Here is the input.
Amino acid sequence: MHELSICQSLIESIEDAAREHAFSKVSRVTLEIGAFAGVEIEALKFSFDVAGRDTLCEGASLVIHAMPGMGYCFECSSAVEIEDRLSPCPKCGSAKVQATGGDQLKIKDLEVV
Ligand SMILES: [Zn+2]
Here is the structure.
């Protein structure tokens, strides 16, 4: 499962941070996930519990900030929020929209014990 491998690499980077900053237990992980990241939020939460077993993330709560997809419309020169990469411009209806943001998947905050 795609989400499981995402969680495993997230936990690995948290373990790296734990070594660097000398903490041994995480109580809350806040993630920022863009609309284009291709991640199923419910599956990610489930996978986080599974992947977190016997790690410093065991029992940690997962908070997810879903970020909107962003694009730039060349027709009306505006930065706009779009639902998916191929959405037309919500302002003028043009299809000349380039996705500029929304594929991020990153750890925004860690609450450690
Ligand atoms: Zn437009």
Notes: The CA atoms of residues 58 and 91 lie 45 Å apart.
